[in-house]
Amino acid sequence: MSLPVYATPHQKLWYYSFRVICGLIFFFLIFPILTIIPLSFNAENFFTFTPKMLALDPEGYSLKHYRDFFSNSDWQLALKNSLTIAPWATLLSVSFGTLAAIGLSQRHVPFKGAIMAILISPMIVPLIISATGMFFFYSTIGIQGTKIGVILAHAALGVPFVIITVTATLVGFDESLTRAAANMGAGPVRTFFKIQMPLILPGVISGALFAFITSFDEVVVVLFVGSAAEKTLPWQMFTGLREQISPTILAVATILVVLSVMLLTAIELLRRRSERLRGMSPG
Fold it and tell me: Which residues form the ABC transmembrane type-1 domain (predicted)?
């Protein structure tokens, strides 16, 4: 929005100050992340910009850290585990979270606020506390140090995102549609998949993408619940920082940043589509 010609000096001062503040916030949030991208192409095994990089000399840049990532067995095992655990955790999160959101959207459910607070508590409780609780609980039932334990732990962390996004799409949902389907003989399952699911699908997919990112980037819980055989990419990055100081971490971080940006872009597009379907924004 441009500054109107009749703006007072006070309004002009606030107009430009607001943009400077937004720019500073954007800079401090984004710049540290963007710094790792050029460093991931460093031809040397350093975490800093070399003189050749600063001089934009092509010899200062290399893809060797990316080649190391795709050829090193430790990194490939971590990538394989992440690509195995994250989809299963996402599937469970979407299944449980969608059912919970639909259940909480019903008018006759008592104590909705308390139930919702409990279900989204994994987002609020510090991860170290959740991880400690999961460690003792999973040890008791014998799944600590297994892939199943890591999948269930990550699913628990992803469920709140699915509940929130699906609940948002259910706001303004026309209940007469489900009643009309029931009057025409459709059962609850058929009504859900034919009537409700197409309308809440953008929220379900958005929640799934959030759950996938949560599982793919999570490191604290997997350190408690998993074992060396279940180490994921964030675990391997943490190990690399602590023990090896390998610049390959920068290449992996760049890949994760690109992946996250792609997923967040998809989430934003789905959010806009959901608003259009619900008539909240012009097409």
Answer: 79-267
